[in-house]
Every structure is written in structure tokens, then in C-alpha cells.
Amino acid sequence: MPVQSAPAAVRRGEPVEFPLRLAAVAHRAFPPGTARIDDPFSLRHFADLTAGYGVPHRPDLAEGGGNTFTTMATALLRDLAPPGLPIDLALVAHATPDLDCRLAAVTALSELVPGHPLSFAVADCGSAAPFAALRLAGAYARRHGHRAVAVFALDQHTLPYESGPRPAGDAGVALLFTDTGTEGRLTLSRLPGTTAEELPDALRSALARLGAGPDLPLVVGPGLDRARDLPGHTGPITQAPPGQPASGTLTALAADPGRARSLVPRQALAVVDYDPAGRDLSVCLIERGS
To answer: Nearest to residue 125, comparing CAs of 274, 289, 288?
Structure first.
């Protein structure tokens, strides 16, 4: 496998093209799962965890079953790639914790995917997690000459404590990039540290740097407002539904949820999300057939 020298540091907001082409997209909304967190270990674990933060443990909020990230990633992998396809790198992005701390999707993927790829998770950055994962995946692919990379963005809503707004349900999106992908090209721009007051100007500048005109179709996160944050944009804007902080905006790339290798039939669109807690602005341009 060819190894390239480490690239120079990327300046804040500078567009970075993903080195591989998009080959497939898969999306699923999951029904209630069967994994439980009311066993003695889990009850003790969550009681200890919440006590450290002064938050009441609420096992009643987790009655019934749920879906682990392992369950969701395994199902999405089946939708995403043909059996036996070697994948060099697998990243899992999430905004809320996994259901069961004893299981890890990245460990499962390292065993399920042929070739035992490098796999790791990106978390603790809110709705910016999938974009940070895409940026990291591209950097690894460029540095190590990877030929196939998969990125999973996962949401699960079963949390046995009050934590403010929680995901509306269990859902996930998976993207496969290969050196022979035919579905399109991605270019990313991330602007951490963007305040709400700076957002309209920062977003307009980010779209301009990506070559996106005012008539380009946009998919925007629920925290963005067209009149406030996108004045002057004339193209169609699709608002991602609330309650899916990791997977919501990328879900719009799937033309038919649950059907792999099927994208929204547009030549180009941009996906935009803003995480107010982390002040992270993320923009991703998707150019079909490039």
C-alpha cells in the first residue's frame, strides 16, 4: 500500500476534496430493538455514571428494548457493500452514547469487514460528528492510500437519564467511498468557533469557497433558519427533521431510504449543519457524476 507524506495543516474553512469517490449510500430507520439495559450491571453502571454529574438515574426512560450501534452498523453494512468487499477504514460518528457500554460498533466492524480494517469512533462534537468523521476519513485515505472507506453516522435515543433533547428514534446513514465510485465527489469545509452572529456571513463565504452559487439546492440542519442564516439564497432548501443529530442531514442523500447505492437525482447539492453548543459550522458539497 503506498504511503504519502503528511499533508500540510488545513486552514480553518479551507475546502478539502475527499480523495475517493462516493460509491453507495444506505439509510435505515430502526424499529424498537431488543437489547436491554435493565440488567444488574447496567443499572449499577448508569447509577454510578449519573451520580458523578448530579443527574438522576431514570431506568423508567429505558423500559423495553433498544438498538445498539453494533446492531445498526451491522445492518447498514449489509445494505451498503456487497459481501466480501474489502474496506480499509471504517469510522462511526455519533452524537449520543451507545446503548450498552459493553459493546462497540468499531470492534464489531473490525471483525465483520473482510481484511479487519482500522476502525474508530468520532463523538462528543454534536451534529458536527459526521462531518468531522468525513474529514478524518479523507485524511486517512489520502495519507495511507486507502481504496475503500466507510463512514457510519448513527443515532440511538434510549438514554436512562434526562439529558435535554434526545434523538427522536434509532436511525443511521452509511456512506461508502472507493477509488472506482461513480456516484459523485465530496468537498468539505468546516469552520469551528463560528458564533451565531457570524453564521450568515460565514455560511455565505463557505458556500462561495466551494463554488456553490445562490441557486444551489441545500439540505440544512434543524438549527439553521433560512431567513436568518441564508438571506439571498434562491435555491431550494430542504430542512432536515429534528431528533437525528448525527444522521439527519446525511439522510437526505438517500433517494430511497433502505435502498443502497441510490442518491437524490441532482447534479449537485450542499449539506449544511451548525452545532450551536460547539459553534461548529460544517458544509459538504456533493457533485454527482464527478
So the answer is: 274
pLDDT (tens digit per residue) in 168-220: 999 999 999 999 999 889 999 999 999 999 999 999 999 999 999 999 999 99
Cβ neighbours around 162 below 10 Å, total: 12
Find cell 442518491 and name the residue: 263
Q: How far is CA 74 from CA 68, 111, 161, 162, 227, in A?
A: 10, 11, 27, 28, 40
Q: Residue 231 has which C-alpha cell?
A: 438571506
Please state, in angstroms and rounded to a whole number, the distance separating the CA atoms of residues 23 and 168: 29
Segment among 36-40, 117-121, 249-253 with least mean pLDDT: 249-253
Residues 24/180, Cβ–Cβ less than 8 Å: no
Which domains does the chain show, CATH number per domain? 16-178 (3.40.47.10), 185-287 (no CATH)
126: left (phi over 0), alpha (psi -120 to 50) or beta: left
Q: Give the pTM.
A: 0.90
